[in-house]
Amino acid sequence: MSYTFTRPMVQCLFCKGGTGSINRALPLQKLYAYAVRRRFGSTPIRLEGNSEQQWPTQNTRHPMHSNLLSESLRVLDMDQRCRVGVQVRDDLKALIVTGKQATSTFPYTFLRDLCSCPHCIDPSTTQKQFQSSDIPENITIKAVRIDEQGCHLYWDHDIDGYGEDHVTNFSCNWLSNQADSMGLEEKPNGLPNESPWGKDAISVFPKLGENFSCGLEYSDICQEDSSLLTALRHLKEYGLVFIHNVPDSPNSIEVITSRIGGLRHTFYGKTWDVKSKPNAENVAYTNKHLGLHMDLLYMADPPGLQLLHCLRSSCNGGESIFSDALNAAVILRWSRIELFKSLLQFPVSYRYFNGDQRYHYTRPTIELDNFPTFETGDLLVTDHYAQIHSKIKHVNWSPPFQAPFTPRRAFPSTFSESFRLYLAAAREFDKIVNSPDMVLEKRLEPGQCVIFNNRRVLHARKAFDTNSGERWLKGGYVDTDVWMSKLRSLSRDTFDPTWKTH
User: Fold this and answer.
1) What is the per-residue pLDDT for 411?
2) Cβ pair 456, 235 in contact under 8 A
3) How far apart are CA 359 and CA 354, in angstroms?
4) Pairing of strands 305-313, 449-453
5) How many whole angstroms separate alpha carbon 398 and alpha carbon 426?
6) In the chain, count of helices (H) and strands (E)?
């Protein structure tokens, strides 16, 4: 059940005709009558009219275009029961798509680049078989066909080597969703957004239960994908989970990480032991108090997840402390923007110099997402706007591993003032993350394993008395790409990062 409207057919349906480009929507009744009269295919295309449905008018404003059309072709997707409207605009070299809630404009070149037919995307490797730069600038849509399988685009001036029978296909439901999500800060992708938390908020998270337990058992994590997905989703949203009843074995952490995708090997080893020892090469291997910090910021790519499995905990002291650095950054942004900007700009170096190891890396305390956020209208994103509104990507805070400051690396002409402002910002940030309202303190007991996002959640440890007993944790790292890949894989029923066309 389908009907194809070619360019000459569409043009001849205008009340006054004309040979110019298609620059206004076709009246619904005229299209319907024409489809019925010609009856291309077994039945005409099904158009569903609803006098209560509000479709865009000339007064409708859109994030990318204000010159919208009076009506849109309305199509009912038989499978998804989804309404979507499409308009070909040669003057804009774009296809205007009206979804359930919004209207968006997609350039011809953009839609052509999304084609995932077997000629464009290799079915075996799932990799592109053309370059985006191969798409001709003068490519146009010569025909649009809509049926129960979706919206099908036929091209003029296609990429060299593609014949006239080449078709790009989009699901109507998917196309409608993309139209609705254009212009939003976040496109819905099935994955949870980060939720900042503090000590008081933890107690009111109904999904997490006491101390972020989530009801997660070691056996469930190892045997059930649903439990593993729950853990990874909590890590994405809150950055911290606990697993219970972990076997008393130094290898248990490797079993857990094998379910996620494998451990990251560093100069500390594949896994490492957190216990007090003489002549320690790291402050973590002592019984001293260790303040809030993140691990391995002296590397270009710090690990994403850190796991700590408690094997022994019979000494006095040694409680673990956690604080959400993302929440602290959000609080600072809205309370002291000038200090927030200093943490965005002032470079801080971290280093590990011990034995044959010489690691050193410089980064700001707060990093923003590189991709700007657009609002309705033609908004020019400025540095000031980005500093206030852009998503916080990473927070970098690790005082025990901080290297000496170098004046020439930190605004040489105004070093004194910038350094003074940075210290004020660092004091305020430290005050926030260590606030009683921000920290979660928990004594890890044997059989418990904590997993936390090392690029977001700060961790610390109270001093402990080695004469009163033993404290032994087994640790390991997982790279961000690895655990996010697993999360997307387990969420594949809801996660769609690409513009899927089949």
Assistant:
1) 57
2) no
3) 9
4) antiparallel
5) 11
6) 13, 23
